[in-house]
Write a structure and sequence with these properties.
Phosphoglycerate_kinase; EC 2.7.2.3; elongated; alpha/beta; 6-stranded parallel sheet; 14 helices
Length: 401
């Protein structure tokens, strides 16, 4: 893959496909991590005199404008981070986009409105997607792919557009791919993988691919209750994918045969109902129980303290750790301890630590950890997982020379 150093960009319109899919509360950005992650690439292009056209999706609008998914607040925050104005086009390929891009001078930046406001961005029809890519290509001379969180999508701006312009990878994608190679090629051992999140079915591919590669796989989050059920225990009202129990039992059997240690929780924090994460109101019926004693009607919402200690011990001697998915409902103080314990265990180890994007990255920031102390915090949870599954990612394939 070519990098931006391989491109002549001075005076040229450089289309940067970023991933600025940040969480919003109204017009307020609650986590600007993805904006900060791509800012160095944009700044480098600005310094070299490029006319930078930034584009991204945000949320899942239905192929037409939707004010609640506007990137307007992102343009403001990007300008603050870059320390320079960022013009904002109120459409993707219409009159505003054309005029805003035409007005750019060397070293100036504009952000287009949400790409998914155009149905061609996500269309499964090659012709419709290609037509949108043609319209985007008319706005630029060069393409830089730096939206790692979207490279697993076969979308117009990710997959089709690079074929229409000279292209290269941005610094963020180059870093992400380098990190993922460290997790898949000549890995420093012991190699510990910590998986959380809600559903086993979301992690089937990555678990399958990690069998025989990881030394230990630690299971938390909502998916742990399917593992607990697979061991023959009741899980009360906790999240359970009954159809995945045979799959999990097969994993446990194959892990034992292949020398991969599955570490399943010993205890769990429970409540009779889902907590109010917006207000953080106290939970009156909070309790910690062993996994073989979850009461009927109880809802498991975090790993317990014995499990947190066990996980810390299993991480302590690791040389490589990949973590994807929180251990519980970390957004509420009563159920954040498990996720906090895992994050701290990563920091306390001497391992190369990778936080696999998505909710895990959000948890690290929400819980007040210093991001710079981790080996790498990914900007793409889904993309990272698919890479670890061994899948070909369309957005990366499109950037090959």
């Amino acid at each position: 893959m070519k990098t931006i150093e391989d491109l002549e960009v001075s005076g040229k319109r450089v289309f940067v496909r970023a991933d600025l899919n940040v969480p919003l509360s109204g017009d307020t950005i609650t986590d600007d991590g993805r904006i900060r992650a791509v800012a160095p690439t944009i700044a480098k292009l600005v310094e070299r005199g490029a006319r930078v056209v930034v584009a991204s999706h945000l949320g899942r609008p239905k192929g037409e404008p939707d004010p609640k998914f506007s990137l307007a607040p992102v343009a403001v925050r990007l300008g603050e981070i870059l320390g320079r104005p960022v013009a904002f086009a109120t459409d993707t390929v219409g009159d505003s986009a054309k005029a805003t891009v035409a007005a750019l001078g060397d070293g100036e930046v504009t952000l287009l409105e949400n790409l998914r406001f155009n149905a061609g961005e996500t269309s499964k029809d090659d012709a419709e997607r290609g037509a949108f890519a043609d319209a985007l290509a008319a706005l630029a001379d060069v393409y830089v792919g730096d939206g790692f969180g979207a490279v697993h999508r076969k979308h117009a701006s990710v997959y089709d557009l690079p074929a229409r312009l000279p292209h290269a990878v941005g610094d963020l994608i180059a870093t992400e791919v380098g990190v993922l190679k460290r997790l898949t090629e000549d890995v420093a051992r012991p190699y510990v993988v910590v998986l959380g999140g809600s559903k086993v079915s979301d992690k089937v591919g990555v678990i399958e691919n990690l069998l025989g590669k990881a030394d230990r796989i630690l299971i938390g989050g909502g998916m742990m209750y399917t593992f607990i059920a697979a061991q023959g225990h009741g899980v009360g009202a906790s999240l359970l994918q009954e159809d995945q129990i045979p799959v999990v039992q097969d994993y446990l059997k194959r892990g034992a045969e292949q020398g991969v240690e599955f570490v399943v929780p010993l205890d769990t924090a429970v409540s009779g109902s889902f907590p109010d994460v917006k207000t953080g109101a106290p939970v009156a019926d909070y309790a910690v129980v062993d996994v073989d004693a979850i009461p009927d009607g109880a809802l498991g919402l975090d790993i317990g303290p014995k499990t947190a200690q066990l996980f810390a011990e299993k991480i302590a001697d690791a040389k490589t750790v990949f973590w994807n998915g929180p251990m519980g409902v970390f957004e509420h103080p009563a159920f954040a301890d498990g996720t906090r314990a895992v994050a701290q265990a990563l920091l306390d180890s001497d391992a190369f630590t990778v936080v696999g994007g998505g909710d895990s990255a959000a948890a690290v920031r929400t819980l007040g950890f210093d991001e710079t102390k981790f080996g790498h915090i990914s900007t793409g949870g889904g993309a990272s997982l698919e890479y670890l599954e061994g899948k070909t990612l369309p957005g990366l394939a499109a950037l090959e020379d």
